[in-house]
Here is the input.
Amino acid sequence: MKQKLVLIGNGMAGMRTIDELLKLSPDKYDITVFGAEPHGNYNRIMLSPVLAGDKTIEQIIIHDLQWYQDKGISLHIGKTVTGIDRTNQIVITDDGYQANYDKLILATGSNPIILPLNGKDLEGVITFRDINDVNIMIETAKTHKKAVVIGGGLLGLEAANGLMMQGMDVSVVQRGSILMNQQLDQTTSDLLQTELEAKGMTFLIDYETAEFIGQGRVEKVRFSNGIEVESDLVVMAVGVRPNICLLYTSPSPRD
Ligand SMILES: Cc1cc2nc3c(=O)[nH]c(=O)nc-3n(C[C@H](O)[C@H](O)[C@H](O)COP(=O)(O)OP(=O)(O)OC[C@H]3O[C@@H](n4cnc5c(N)ncnc54)[C@H](O)[C@@H]3O)c2cc1C
Here is the structure.
């Protein structure tokens, strides 16, 4: 009798684990995978080339839906696991579906940080984390011109570059004075900034975002220095937090 293995999180880490398990013991488990995103497993790192127009979504898929079928894996996409009953060894999804497990893997990744500012819920204020975000950016660029990217780290600069490739005028907001401050010092940051400005990127250095303004859709970003910048799209790239909420909502039987 096969053991039941459930994986929560159809991302790169979780699915790489399944790849390795299948190599080591292909027949040991009945495998069920839950993924909140409505896709097969894809290479998240390659979303930047997709945004820049160098790759398509199809080209960054690691395991398509047929692969799961071929491997006998039961895949539930577009379903979020909202609870774990550790006494009875059951996971429960947002639509009430339940699955039993003998072994459970949590590979729920991270969530992008959303600045808790006025206007954060306006249409056109997004993050850069998944296929949906990239699709919104590409579609917005077809009809709108002005974008503001908050965060001058690697991810923010990749978003800004991609949006420029899609034809938008992009301003990058950085709270400190150093771009990519985890990797660069002031001198190298200045060189990078000069290089990117030559390509048409605008920088708002030492700016602190205060609020997003608009009626339904974002129209402007206001900064703590009182300056306002027009914007049809705001992309927040200010870091991620580990997505560990299931650990807190699902106490162990011993707790
Ligand atoms: C544009 C971009 C570029 C990047 N570039 C680099 C890079 O160059 N180098 C690098 O090292 N890293 C890079 N990263 C970060 C890298 O993509 C992540 O570190 C990596 O994807 C983490 O993999 P993961 O499987 O742990 O989590 P994730 O990729 O976050 O996958 C977790 C999955 O679990 C799903 N999930 C979460 N909770 C539930 C739940 N309760 N029920 C069902 N499903 C759930 C999520 O929807 C998600 O699909 C980049 C990220 C982005 C967005």
Summary: Residues 8-14, 34-37, 44-45, 47-48, 80-81, 107-110, 128-129, 155, 158, 243, 246 surround flavin-adenine dinucleotide (CB under 6 Å). Helices lie at 12-24, 47-51, 65-70, 131-143, 154-165, 186-198, 245-249. The first helix runs from residue 12 to 24. The domain at 3-111+242-249 is CATH 3.50.50.60 (FAD/NAD(P)-binding domain).
